[in-house]
Design a protein that fits this description.
0% strand; 182 residues
């Protein structure tokens, strides 16, 4: 268990779970869209983990097979071992799961109504904005490196303009990194 976990009291654990429950309700587009707020809360506000540990936790979880939400468990593990993983996962999964089940039942009967179509149509730009803010946070170490920024801009342009498999862009990024360009 980490040093932060031994320093956490009941109030800290409750605050952690409640914060992740709130983030669960804001995680339109997946839990990864709330990563900037998780970073602010865990790293900047409480100092329970370092910024490097935060980024490494996300990278580790994203590289592993399985659902993308696993990064939340890895963050919780960094904070407090098994207890932290259970606390963060319960917080991020319970509220959104209950709300999704309730809304699915409600909207199934009203799928053709103007309100339901407007609501689902309005979620797309919100999801894109949340994903862009997450990308910006995770790319923070590369902000000062012009090669990395050029690679990002080029990848965004290629993705937007042509229907090219993202695997080619990942391979280009890996090659640029291996050559020291990014």
């Amino acid at each position: 268990m980490s040093a932060a976990a031994t320093a956490l009291g009941w109030a800290d654990w409750a605050q952690l779970v409640l914060h992740f429950m709130l983030l669960s309700l804001l995680s339109i587009g997946g839990a990864i869209t709330t990563a900037p707020e998780m970073h602010r809360f865990l790293v900047r506000e409480h100092g329970w983990i370092s910024s490097a540990d935060f980024s490494q936790s996300i990278a580790l979880a994203q590289s592993a097979p399985g659902p993308n939400v696993l990064f939340v468990a890895v963050l919780g593990w960094q904070i407090g071992g098994v207890t932290g993983a259970v606390a963060t996962m319960a917080g991020i999964l319970l509220p959104s799961s209950v709300l999704t089940l309730a809304l699915a039942h409600w909207s199934r009967r009203r799928r053709d109504s103007r309100e339901v179509r407007a609501f689902t149509g309005g979620l797309a730009p919100l999801t894109v904005a949340l994903l862009l803010s997450t990308g910006w946070l995770l790319a923070e170490p590369a902000h000062a490196h012009l090669g990395a920024l050029a690679l990002f801009a080029g990848s965004a342009l290629v993705s937007w303009r042509w229907r090219l498999s993202p695997l080619w862009l990942i391979a280009a990024g890996a090659a640029a990194g291996a050559l020291g360009l990014a």
